[in-house]
Amino acid sequence: MVIRDEAPSDGASIRSLTDAAFLGAEHSSGTEGAIVDALREAGALAVSLVAGRDGTAVGHVAFSPVLIDGEDRHWFGLGPVSVSPGLQRGGIGTALIEEGLRRLRRRGAHGCVVLGDPAFYRRFGFTSDPALRYGDVPPEYFQSMVLSGIPEKGVVTYHEGFDAR
Known about the structure:
This protein is α+β, with helices and mostly antiparallel strands. The protein has 4 helices and 9 strands; from the N terminus they run βααβββαβαββββ. The protein starts with a strand and ends in a 7-residue tail after the last strand. Strands 1, 2, 3, 4, 5, 6, 7, 8 and 9 form a 9-stranded mixed β-sheet that branches. The relative contact order is 0.18. The protein has a single domain, classed as 3-Layer(aba) Sandwich (Aminopeptidase). It is globular, with a radius of gyration of 15 Å.
């Protein structure tokens, strides 16, 4: 498997992969593919990585800027993470997330947030901090990781691309 930056020609395959990965997922909004497309169109994919196997995209991860109390504090949101349905739970998503976090650190990012399964994201170093909130989401499902500096406090807002349908 090779992990690489998204190329301009990857849009359609990432959309197809993302739609397939989230089809029938318990907590899916069904809009994850549209979200990635909207982030791309807005130039808001700070890190967008593709996992390829035998020339085919089998995984994708997106990181986009978030605001804290309406301010850019150089924090990013992780997600969506997509892996081909037949290859899920095989380490592709983990490899994509780890590489994405490495790239954020190299860029000097201060932190990253994620909305998702606490048990899964805890293994990367994400923790719940009730001082950093996202809407009315239970704190255990909204987690953060300080990459440099100090923990932030406040309300997180994702890029408007997350409103895509």
